[in-house]
From TrEMBL, chains A, B:
Start and end residues of each HTH gntR-type domain: 13-81
Alphabetized CDD domains for the sequence: WHTH_GntR
Keyword Cell division set for record: no
GO biological process, one term: L-histidine metabolic process
Molecular-function GO terms, alphabetical: DNA binding; DNA-binding transcription factor activity
Superkingdom, natural source: Bacteria
Protein name: Histidine utilization repressor
Keywords: DNA-binding, Transcription, Transcription regulation
Lineage: Bacteria, Pseudomonadati, Pseudomonadota, Alphaproteobacteria, Hyphomicrobiales
NCBIfam families with a match to the protein in the record: his_ut_repres
Keyword Cell wall biogenesis/degradation: no
Length: 246, 246
DNA sequence: CGTTTCAATATGTATATACATAATAACCAT
DNA sequence: ATGGTTATTATGTATATACATATTGAAACG
């Protein structure tokens, strides 16, 4: 969950939202290092020419999100980055399949260019409407379906994608080759297969599946949203790590 | 005489916090089903005898947490509840539950001390046989089962655990307090609930569940293996990260 | 009958104000 | 010095108020 709402460039952002993003910007960029005391509420309210309540709303949210720590009488301090190490690699399904010693096959099922619907914008966390590319792809290990991919690409951020058919190359590797991502978010959950997914994966409707959704940003612009659906028995995510500072 | 006033005994919680937990309680318990319109801000402010701003603070947080959806002129409506945990960070279920504003309850279901079976050794990646403690625990959010825990503790590495009943404290927090872990491995997958899990989580057998298994080492010695099983609809793991640093 | 306009309404944001609470600094007494 | 008291300060919570904004239902109109 992004702390900074994707509320987008045009001026229609609330003030506490702007204060919040200004501060988290400074924290994320490293300008304000961990331990740094950020200005007091009354200082910020002077800077932004607003009431303390407005500043308080922004700072409370930052505290809730874990970016800062607030201490009475002392002020608010930048916290050390959380240990959320890059545990989940951006995975290339071809490599996963080939690591199993199975032949990999990719298939583009559908491709639609369209103006973003409300749902598209929600998935991409996109503020304004614009063109998107919707893709549906199958990944196979030998004869068996290995994963089903449903992807949205924000054509405003990646206009070249409009000219690519994605028949010969999967969108994942294509994007990695040309769009440097600056941030990604994964959502992982279990679901029951609906009929569409069941057909695509050749399993029973209602069978458990692992869904991995990834949203990617490049320099604060939403780039793509992808949902991989794996039949339960074919996939386990493995993440190994060590504790970082604390 | 509102819904409120019973307690006040110990809980020195803020009012907006109490409004928040009252409402999320009703949502999570199913008393207010998805789609149900919750009372208007002005109704709640009358019920709780407080200002609209206080109610607004609670409802805004509920909306941000995804439990409700707010529509101007129409009111606020219950959404399908989903908890979010930062995957590899928050592993204390109590904290996850309390973050939802719900009362947390822990229950030890079973406890067996035994010499490690072959299966135990496989789970713990243990070379030689030795004593282990097998635990089964329930974690509840309000009245509803939130997660089921199945755990093995390597008593060779943590002999003190043999003297602990784990009735008053869950094994997770107990271990964290005394065994510094140096490495951990997660495995995440989707499964269909077997009869045992279905009964424990109060769901249908065969329903999809998210399973998170964690193995922990301390200075190269296997410490514990734990498997958390969450009902699919109640849980999404979220991990957000940047490529360069953490 | 369909369309436009308008008023009513619930939420969204911001303000000034007030008092509570926790942590620290400063002070004082032993 | 040492320990305890007090004052100061920043945050925490709550209030009443105001106006903006989105949406809806109904009235007015062609």
């Amino acid at each position: 969950m992004s702390i900074v709402e994707t509320a987008d460039a045009e001026g229609s952002v609330s003030l506490h939202q702007r204060i919040l993003s200004d501060i988290s910007e400074r924290i994320m960029s490293g300008a304000w290092a961990p331990g740094h005391r950020i200005p007091f509420e009354h200082e910020l309210s002077t800077q932004y020419n607003c009431s303390r309540m407005t500043v308080n709303k922004a700072l409370s949210q930052l505290a809730k999100a874990g970016l800062i720590e607030r201490r009475r009488r002392s002020g608010s301090f930048v916290r050390r980055p959380q240990s959320q190490a890059a545990v989940l690699e951006i995975h290339d399904i071809r490599i996963e399949v080939e690591a199993l010693g199975l032949p990999y096959r990719y298939e583009r099922v559908a491709r639609h260019k369209r103006r973003s619907s409300a749902e598209d914008r929600a998935l991409l966390e996109l503020g304004a409407a614009g063109p998107v590319l919707a893709l549906e792809c199958g990944h196979f290990a030998g004869e068996r379906p290995f994963a089903h991919e449903q992807r949205l690409i924000n054509l405003t951020a990646v206009p070249e994608a409009a000219d690519e058919e994605f028949v010969a190359i999967a969108p994942g590797p294509w994007l990695i080759g040309r769009v440097p991502w600056s941030e990604a978010e994964h959502r992982i959950r279990a679901v029951a297969a609906d009929r569409h997914i069941a057909a695509a994966l050749d399993i029973e409707a209602g069978a458990p599946c692992l869904v991995v959704e990834r949203r990617t940003w490049s320099a604060d612009h939403p780039v793509t949203h992808v949902r991989f659906t794996y039949p339960a028995e074919s996939h386990t995510l493995v993440a190994r790590f060590r504790p970082s500072q604390g």
